[in-house]
Amino acid sequence: MRRYVMLLAVIAFATPAHALDLPTRKAGLWELTMDFHNARLPQRSMKQCTDAASDKLMNMNFGGSDEHACAKKDIVRNAEGFVIDSECTFGAMTTTSHAVVTGSFDSNYAVDVTSTRKGGPPGMAPTGGSHMTITAKWVGPCAAGQKPGDVTMANGMTMNVLDLQKGRPPLPKR
């Protein structure tokens, strides 16, 4: 279960957009690398197969967070990209995040995210912070057998985030 929650959190920040008015990524296969600064987590990588429709849904449902859960979601475009500041509450946990997005959604981009958390599930420290950097590059068309929404982790496990969104349990493929 912990890995599933971690994967959803990673996907949430891996997508370049946190709102509908941000650009969608170029269709095809994207390779993403996540560095968790000041954490005991190793660097993670994954590949995402996208098209315009799946990218929009992933951004809306995973990167966008539930509109009702966020008291604040400010997006500012600047010369380098976007700055996104948000405050969202999920149950007993409130997360305040600051993300700086740079690059191109057609070839490569980077996201630098700092977050602070207050509250959380039992067994978790009552406060915490994190710093994560995501780099993404477009590597070409999706591989044979992939469909939009497929996310393949470095260990070879593949799940489709659109199926997760529909409430179907993921079927890992190897």
Distance between the termini: 19 Å
Question: How many domains is the backbone divided into?
Answer: 1
Helix count, per DSSP? 3
- Whole-angstrom Rg: 15 Å
Q: How would you spell out the order of helices and strands?
A: HEEHEEEEEEEH
Low-confidence stretches: 1-20, 61-65
Biggest pleated-sheet summary? 9 strands, antiparallel
Strand content: over 45%
Proportion of helical residues: 10-25%
Q: Strand order, biggest sheet?
A: 3-4-5-6-7-1-2-8-9
Label the overall shape: globular
Query: Oligomer, anyone?
Result: single chain
Architecture overview:
The protein has 174 residues and is of the alpha+beta class. The chain has one domain. The chain has helices at 2-14, 52-63, 161-165; strands at 28-37, 44-50, 70-77, 81-90, 93-104, 108-118, 127-140, 150-153, 158-160. It has a 9-stranded antiparallel β-sheet with strand order 3-4-5-6-7-1-2-8-9. A hairpin with a 3-residue loop joins β3 and β4. The radius of gyration is 15 Å and the shape is globular.
Brief descriptors of the model:
single chain, 9-stranded antiparallel β-sheet, globular, 174 residues, 3 helices, alpha+beta
